[in-house]
Amino acid sequence: MKVIVNGEPRELPEGASVADAVAAVTAAAAGLAAALNDEVVRRSAWEATLLNEADRLEVLTAVQGG
């Protein structure tokens, strides 16, 4: 199925979760947030939140700055 991850089309298998998509775009283990179709998904729900055709997922990384 095709989903949009960080503004780019990406092909993922049927039944892919938010956790699967995040793992496909970054190796970072901490400092991440995900929003599915403009709604924040709690990290504890990433595995259980399945993606659907044409969903929009934004994966955000926290960055220190000053």
From TrEMBL:
Transmembrane segments: none annotated. InterPro entries: Beta-grasp_dom_sf, Mopterin_synth/thiamin_S_b, Thi_S, ThiS/MoaD-like. Pfam families: ThiS. It comes from the Bacteria. The gene is thiS. The lineage of its organism: Bacteria, Bacillati, Actinomycetota, Actinomycetes, Streptosporangiales. CDD domains: Ubl_ThiS. This is Sulfur carrier protein ThiS.
